[in-house]
Amino acid sequence: MTKILDEPRYVCALGALQTVEAIYKAIPVVHAGPGCTAKVSIGGRSGYLGTQTVPCTNVGETEVVFGGEEKLHDVIENSLKVMDGDIFIVLSGCTTEIVGDDIDNVVGTFKDSEKPVLSVPTAGFKGTNIEGHEWVVDAIIDQYLSKRYFGEKIKGLVNIWGPVPSYDPHWVGNFRELENLIRELGLTPNCIFGEYRGIDNINLVPRAKYNLLVAPWVGLGNVKNLKEKFGTPYLHYPTLPIGAHETSLFLRTVGKEFNVDSNLVEELITRKEKEYYYYIERSCSFFFENRASSKMFSTVASADYALSLSRFFVNDMGLVPSKQYITEGVPEEHYDRIRQYFKEFNYEIEAEVVFSNDGYQIHQQIENDDYAGTPLILGSIYEKKLASKLNGTFLCVSTPYAERVVIHSSYVGYHGGLKLLEDLYTSVFQKFN
Amino acid sequence: MAINVKGSQCETREARLGSITTYSGTLQDIGAQSVCSGCLDEKKRCFSQSSMCNSMCALNQAARINDVAIVHHGPVGCAATAMDVPNTWGLLADTLGKKRDNFGWTCTDMTESDTVFGAVDNLKEVIIETYNRYKPKAIFIGASCVSGVIGEDLEGVLDDLKEQVPVPIAPIHCEGFKSQIWASGFDATFHAILRYIVKPPKKKTNKVNVINFAGGTTWDSRGEVKRLFNALGVEPTFFLASSSVEELEEMSEAVATISTCSTLSSYIGNGLEKEYGVPYIRSLQPHGIVGYEDWARKLAKVLGKEKEAEIFIAQEKEKYQAKIDEVVAKLQGKRAMIAMGPGFGVNYSRILQSFGMKVEHLSVWHFDKQYDDGQLPPALAYQLEYSENDFSFSVNDLQNFEYINILNRLVPDILISRHGGTTVWSHKIGIPALNVFDEYTSFGYQGTLRFAQSVLYAITNKSFTENLAKRVKLPYKEWSLKQPFDAFIK
């Protein structure tokens, strides 16, 4: 069978350098070609670091012919002198792995340096940026956290895992809102990504009482690893909670699992739902009284967004799912479990799941399907034209998402659900409706 | 080494032109070394930061053409450049009212076993499938580091596909490791176009090939070019953004080739001249008054329309010069640093000097001591003769640590840059920055006025810069910023 990837929606394992950059003052040191960092930096932002500040060996013909170990040694050594960082993570690319550089050996020579230096093989041909994300977290667990004792467990401390930095367009906001929800339950969140979350947060990871993974598949390896290394139990909650139905379920599940007083949980939910429905009550006419809103929808997105948005539109908004397209190259071992998640909607509603990285075929299928009128398509920028061709409603929620600017917002939680409705019905409102 | 259109690949800039990515000295020194053979040796960096690769330049250029497909032979990360197409070249075509329905970008998604066994068979199938899906007018095969290192024979597939794919298939040899100079990627794409797509002329037209980056609709830049060209009795055809394969085929029929960036156009301009006798206009870039007039006059000379050019220029001068003078009066003595590609950088040093500003330093990403005609770049020759000061000069391959180190020392009134991702670091240390993102920013008299105003406003209201600088810091240690910027070049 022809192996064809039409319209790339994810990048290679080296894209995990964005996971490193998401940790404040963590410095990726890239041992790859000169363009790799810029190519895989799909979020394309500046922060404490930016593409151009990331140390890189910029492997050229000389290193391909004679090997790049010496260059790598120089660049790590001088990165430690130049870069103001707390932890350095070496990421390798395709060329350096094909020519057989012994990266572990080079990195090993820095084992006594003042700041920790880790390494992760992230050759592009070995996996996706989503898998690479998991490998980076594992490297932090195995090569840093497991090497010393960070102190005893802290009551109520919960590590939060899930969104893949920069790949999830709303990752910063999503982590922030997940932290807020945990805080509302009277627990203490700990997250290593986002707003100034850095080495201190990494150091707290082994001290947490619980790990919470909010993602359908990525990160499962990490929380299992943490359980093995530090005996920390984990809760795997596959859905990013968006809107009232899911967020309430999320709070109940987390509360029960992490031993929060159920009266407190129910009181919180009642208060939050009351607030949420105040705004919903005011907006019904937007949702149901126009010519342009859809009854059926498809997501063309990474598994986390496909699942979370589907659950929101079915369980909160009363829409009916058409096929749901999952596009981030999910490893096959997770297929069955993910399919099952799409069979657990209200009223025994189910959705067919298609795993594909072939944009052309996805578009063909959507064009051939009947949406009982105008389709709602929640996808990447590649779906924009398709939606317009089908006179559908479109919201850009998945990579590549250069159609929208996301600075601070999130779709997580009660507020996130309302924000999603604002974004979606703004695009309905802008058409003749 | 001259251009060889018949060769399967073009040589890199290092090999062909002796171009370099490391240097520290002054304008006059690099000028003197440029004309001495054996000088300007490349040096090595023992600390380096992520740069760019020729694949990004090559394939992003190819992706501008509306009716081609790109088959990227590499792992998925390489094809990330495709993600930027809908919101750039897709939008440009929409705005210009052009169709891109035949455009496609596919990838062979090379995995570990492909690196061992090769994947030429899959490549062939993907090319056929891509053709059947999109019916493009030409297909480019984009090479990658992996396809290069394992030695995939890209030319080998062409004969096998002749029957199934009845359009030109053109390999672009833009393996990222091949050249440290990403502009080699421009050449790789233009080589593929010259070798596989451009046809011998059937007739002569009154069209001028305009080699530019975008030619967007902001400020009606295409309209501005047309206005001048109408006065000279010719029509512009803009390449490669939103161009078509048919337009590419007919490049050989043009009356001349001209460009907005001499770095970008060297290979195609000289190649068309050598192969088909299309005159290549070797002028300053059309930025600032001196540049624009030189550009217009040299084109007019080839067309025999000198008189018309003078009339046109005089009208523009009449309309804008007084306004320019008024703004420029407020810029006298202001200090600037420039960080850009070599074509734009040297041209902008001239423009800022024409505003009465002092150029303190010019950082260029790479340096071409000559173009494909063996001559010194015109803007450099001009500055060697006319620059009022022998400003310090560095070549630094987009190395952020190096140019920010220089900027931090000089503390000029403004940094003028062009590359995406450069300005934030300047703001962080409290220095206003202006990114000349659009190549037509200072095009002609009107653009020069607009640019002078932009510089003035950036210097006048420093609120954003000061707000940011108070609250964030650079990711560099204090110690390292005190080292010479070239401390890690050996």
Number of helices of chain B: 21
Uncertain runs of chain A: none
Major sheet size, sense and barrel closure of chain A: 6 strands, parallel
Nearest-angstrom radius of gyration of chain B? 23 Å
Distance between the termini of chain A: 45 Å
Q: Biggest interface and which pair forms it?
A: A-B, 76 and 72 residues
Overall structural class of chain A, as computed from helix and strand content, comes to alpha/beta
Structural account:
The complex is a heterodimer of chains A (433) and B (490). By secondary structure, chain A is α/β, with parallel strands linked by helices. In chain A, 43% of the residues lie in helices and 13% in strands. Chain A has 3 domains: 13-147, Rossmann fold (3-Layer(aba) Sandwich); 157-242, Rossmann fold; 263-429, Nitrogenase molybdenum iron protein domain (Rossmann fold), CATH 3.40.50. The N and C termini of chain A lie far apart (45 Å). By secondary structure, chain B is α/β, with parallel strands linked by helices. Chain B has helices at residues 13-17, 27-34, 54-62, 86-96, 112-117, 120-134, 145-149, 156-160, 184-196, 221-231, 245-249, 262-276, 288-303, 306-328, 342-354, 378-386, 400-410, 423-428, 444-460, 463-471, 478-482, and strands at residues 23-26, 68-72, 104-107, 138-142, 169-172, 207-211, 235-239, 256-259, 335-340, 358-364, 392-395, 414-417, 433-435. In chain B, the strands form 3 sheets. Chain B has a 6-stranded mixed sheet with strand order 1-11-10-9-12-13, with helices on both faces. In chain B, strands 3-2-4-5 form a 4-stranded parallel sheet, with helices on both faces. In chain B, strands 7-6-8 form a 3-stranded parallel sheet. In chain B, strand 9, helix 15 (342-354) and strand 10 (358-364) form a beta-alpha-beta unit. The longest helix of chain B is centred in the middle third of the chain and has 23 residues, at 306-328. At the A-B interface, strand 1, helix 2, helix 3, helix 4 and helix 5 of A face helix 3, helix 4, strand 3, helix 5 and helix 6 of B. Strand 1 of chain A pairs antiparallel with strand 3 of chain B.
